Amino acid sequence: MSEEVISSNFIHDVIDQDIAAGLTERIHTRFPPEPNGYLHIGSAKAIWVNYSTAKKYNGLFNLRYDDTNPVKEDDEFVKSIEEDLRWLGANPDGIFYGSDYFDKCYEYAVKLIKDGKAYVCDLSADEMREYRGTLTEPGKDSPYRNRSVEENLDLFERMKNGEFPDGSHTLRAKIDMSSPNMNMRDPAIYRIIHTSHHRQGDKWCIYPLYDFAHPIQDALEGITHSLCSIEFENHRPLYEWVVNNIGFEHKPKQREFARLNVTYTVMSKRYLRALVEEQLVDGWDDPRMPTLCGLRRRGYTPSSIFSFVQKSGISKALSLCDENLLEHCIREELNSTATRRMAVLDPIEVEITNYDEGRTEYFDVVNNPEDPDAGTRKVAFTKHLYIERSDFSDNPPPKFQRLKIDSEVRLMSAYVIKCSEALYDENGNVVKLLCTIDPETGGKNPPDGRKIKGTIHWVSKENAVDAEVRLYDKLFTIEDTGAIPEDKSFRDYLNPESLIVMKNAKLEKALEGASSGERFQFVRNGYFCVDVHSPNVINRIVTLKDSFAKSMKQ
């Protein structure tokens, strides 16, 4: 990870102060995802903040699965999370599971009970909300708040032994029901869930809540800075209460940053799961999804994603990041690295009437004009070719500079051609163009000095590779999916043109046998990559047009 990528931000300023004050020696961070879904572009920010911070200070970075809720967690998600981290290059120094700390969490819960700082409560969830109060009114003490230590220990043990049904009892921290911070009003720290755990099996039927388990895990692992998203800022006093009242000598410090929200997409795991389960997309790795596996399948690179996170900024201010910036980051990278190839997505046949049948000649074509070391390749030219249907018009608009009857264009790196006739089917659709070449213009300008305004790409019919090309676009039509009206659903704003399939695309021969995930620029069309599931499917990453770069110049 480059120095540019790990340049300073307000979190690093906090760490610099801690180091200067002698509060810490070796920085240790962590990324603690819950394995109940696939990671997304928002997760990449949390990964980048924690990983890059650890590396900048020559510290340590942990992956810790927050698997304290067994209801929706699964080994499928556990495996995908580690795969995504390693793909990003954020290789953890250690991999841990929150569930491996269940014995310690239980031990510390018993300690709090013995210290008179926790009690078993029989209030239902609805009753707890009523007793909790509001932002303007203090809460009321639970009628079970003053149970004796002995009674609480007995009830908590019986909870652990499975004697009570789900929701009948909770263990709550005894803090302050009149606190202005709602999170400090005797929060629940243990609940009953009779569900098998993906790692612990049926050993437990009580599970610690995140706000209790997380600071314990951080303290036991030696985490120095618990860097998390801004919604946990109001939870920080509870985090510190747990650390201090359990009596940890090592006291990790929690600091928060704004989440990464992106236009034209959703980040909620609930909504993403609905998209998958309702088959509105083709699984978690659908290239339209903001999941990391979806972005990977679409053709995004780890460096482009981290570049996007960095350019979006690290602050505490909530903002909505422009998806065009993400597209700009991958274009900027692929412009210098992607090999150029010719591909005709919506083909129309061209017959060169003054070119011999069976003749093939080869033109040298530059592989990447941005990279002199990329060299050239041989591209076959034959009597029968394909061009894009949109590159011909029999009723051209003003200033149309592509192919039309009795006009000339240059075939990229090859000949100047002139169209003499268009052939139609019974429905009036053009099926073939009859053209002639200027034989003096093979790979060079006309010798008489005439100017050829239009240049189009092409593919030899005899040498073409058949493929299905999928043109992906924004999944939603609304920019801010967080502003959907109450009487509407995110389903009402799905973009019907988020996927257009070109089943009859024709690719140049050099694309035959391209490897899974390999990226190219299809000249005049955009950046594409070979699908990871099917070698005969090509996914569009982004178009060539970069509206974000244009806006920066204005």
Mean of all residue-level pLDDT scores: 94
Please report the distance between the alpha carbons of the first and last residues. Answer: 31 Å
Major sheet attributes:
7 strands, mixed
What oligomerization state is this entry in? single chain
Total count of helical runs of at least 4 residues: 13
- Spatial extent as radius of gyration: 31 Å
Give helix % range: 25-40%
Spans of at least 5 consecutive residues whose pLDDT stays below 50 are 1-5
Main-sheet strand order equals 12-25-26-27-23-24-13
Q: Look at the helices and sheets and give the structural class.
A: alpha/beta
Shape: elongated
Query: How many beta-strand segments?
Result: 27
What percentage of the residues does DSSP assign to strands (E)? 15-25%
Describe the secondary-structure layout.
Elements: H1 10-20, E1 28-31, H2 41-56, E2 60-65, H3 75-88, E3 94-97, H4 102-114, E4 118-121, H5 125-132, H6 149-160, E5 170-173, E6 188-192, E7 206-208, H7 210-221, E8 225-229, H8 236-246, E9 253-257, E10 261-262, H9 269-277, H10 292-298, H11 302-312, E11 320-321, H12 323-337, E12 339-341, E13 343-344, E14 347-352, E15 361-366, E16 376-381, E17 384-388, E18 408-411, E19 416-424, E20 430-437, E21 455-456, E22 459-460, E23 465-472, E24 499-507, E25 519-522, E26 526-530, E27 537-542, H13 547-553
Parallel strand pairs: 1-2, 2-3, 8-9, 10-11, 12-25, 14-20, 18-21, 23-27
Antiparallel strand pairs: 4-5, 5-6, 6-7, 13-24, 14-17, 15-16, 17-22, 18-19, 19-20, 23-24, 25-26, 26-27
Helix pairs in contact: 2-11, 7-8, 11-12
